[in-house]
Here is the input.
Amino acid sequence: QVQVVESGGGLVQAGGSLRLSCAASGRTFSTIGMDWFRQAPGKEREFVATINWSSGSTYYANSVKGRFTISGDAAKNTLYLQMNSLEPEDTAVYYCHARGPKNYWGQGTQVTVSS
Here is the structure.
């Protein structure tokens, strides 16, 4: 059974920072890359950032480029998202997505940015 667990969410003032973590585990489980998505109240889930292990390449949504940094450890199937200069518009549930022979989602972690 594969488990994907996010942590690190919370309440922060605008301009502040948070670091999200994600750990994916399971017997013989491996990934080719991992992603962060988010879903704000009343909106659809949207892409935030992605990392591919083989190339180390990363890609960001325009709305977070320059403020968020994705990183991780392929061997440990762990993922991080450093979020700086947070804005109220970043308020959402943040989800970790593990890509491999099969794809898995975590349950999400709430990030709330107050103005």
The mean pLDDT is 95. The two ends are 40 Å apart (CA to CA). Residues 38 and 94 are 4 Å apart (CA to CA).
